[in-house]
Amino acid sequence: MTKEHLQTTTAGRWIGVGALLAMLAVMLGAFGAHGLKSHFSEQQMAWYQTAFQYHIIHAIALIITGLASALTPSKNLPKLAGLCFLSGVLLFSGSLYTLALTQMRWLGAITPLGGIAFLFGWGLLAVAGFRINQKENPS
User: Fold this and answer.
1) Contacts of residue 79, Cβ cutoff 8 Å, sequence gap at least 6
2) For the chain, is the Cβ count within 10 Å smaller at the N or the C terminus?
3) Range of the domain at 88
4) 67: Cβ contacts below 8 Å, ≥ 6 apart
5) What CA–CA distance (Å, rounded) separates 20 from 56?
6) Least confident span in 72-76, 94-98, 122-126
7) Are 45 and 84 in contact (CB under 8 A)?
8) Is residue 116 in some structural domain?
9) Which residues contact 7 (CB under 8 A, 6 or more apart)?
10) CATH no. for residue 53?
11) Cβ neighbours of residue 105 under 8 Å, at least 6 residues apart?
């Protein structure tokens, strides 16, 4: 398998995962707006909306990660960024969705871990972006 093929395969996977996460976000957003709103308190709705907002933004970030993966000579940075974004959605948005549905407040302790994952993802994506025009990169 050539380096170019590996990069385009990885790029396609991140784009696909990002698109599926975006589709899930739209479904959960519609479910929250139409199915849960009348059953939720103001606080629960706020948690749910925050989860949705970060979910959809980072689904799009995964699509961008796929595009960056195809453009940058670095194969590891976009991969790590994608893993951070995916982990962030699971930890940050997942804990807030679950908190809104169950009101199990201990889940709030998990949420910042997802936020940290998002920050690392954006940082790694930034470095990958700065390296797009470089010819060769060992990382």
Assistant:
1) 10, 69
2) N
3) 3-130
4) 11, 15
5) 10
6) 72-76
7) no
8) yes
9) 69, 70, 75
10) 1.20.120
11) 99
Structure tokens at 134: 């470089």
pLDDT digit string (tens) for 97-128? 999 999 999 998 999 999 999 999 999 999 99
Q: How many domains does the chain have?
A: 1
Q: What is the pTM of this model?
A: 0.88
How many Å apart are CA 52 and CA 38, to the nearest integer? 17
Residue with tokens 């700065």: 130
**CA torsion, ordered 129, 6, 67, 52, to nearest 10 deg:** -100
| Cβ atoms within 10 Å, residue 66 | 23
